[in-house]
Design goal:
Elements lengths: L4 H12 L7 E3 L11 E13 L5 E12 L7 H9 L2 H8 L8 E3 H7 L7 H15 L1 H4 L3 E3 L2 E4 L5 E5 L5
Parallel strand pairs: 1-2, 4-5
Antiparallel strand pairs: 2-3, 6-7
């Protein structure tokens, strides 16, 4: 069967429309004329595996994103609150075996006021992911690494380059 992301987005939009009246569905967040509130799909990689009888199975990973408003002044704080909490991310991933966690080590570092540092701290996080999702799923996740200057309450002040201390 052949299909495109646009067809998938349209099918998803048709299915979700009754539950989200007034929400626009777009194939791309930068689509010309897009206006919030809206939803869009982002492709997050995939894989192809050989299955029985010479058949191939292609897995496409997609994120469905709901955008309430553009250029919110508190958007970074809202993003940080959701992305930094490893326990919540792992809890969501346990709902469905197809969900893959995104772990933002820089934000976890800032949230813990720098306590998350060194090999032992990284091993603890990886062990936590493995305990929650199992060895096979824990071996594949999306991650972000960045140096972050944080505020006294554990918020992000600014991203730093790797040359900055």
């Amino acid at each position: 069967m052949k299909f495109s992301t646009a067809q998938l987005a349209q099918s998803l939009a048709d299915y979700l429309a009754p539950y989200f009246p007034g929400v626009h569905f777009y194939e791309d967040p930068n689509q010309q004329g897009s206006k919030p509130p809206c939803m869009f799909l982002q492709q997050r990689g995939g894989e192809i595996k050989l299955r029985q009888a010479g058949r191939w199975l292609r897995t496409i990973r997609l994120d469905l994103v709901y955008l309430e408003q553009f250029n919110r002044p508190d958007l970074q704080q809202l993003y940080n609150a959701a992305a930094e909490t490893l326990d919540e991310v792992l809890e969501l991933c346990q709902l469905d075996g197809r969900l893959t966690p995104t772990v933002d080590f820089g934000h976890l570092y800032a949230r813990t006021l720098g306590a998350l540092d060194g090999p032992a701290a990284m091993a603890e996080i990886l062990d936590k992911i493995s305990a929650a999702l199992g060895e096979e799923r824990a071996a594949r996740f999306h991650s972000h690494f960045s140096k972050i200057q944080f505020t006294p309450n554990g918020g992000e002040k600014m991203h730093l380059t790797f040359d900055q201390s």
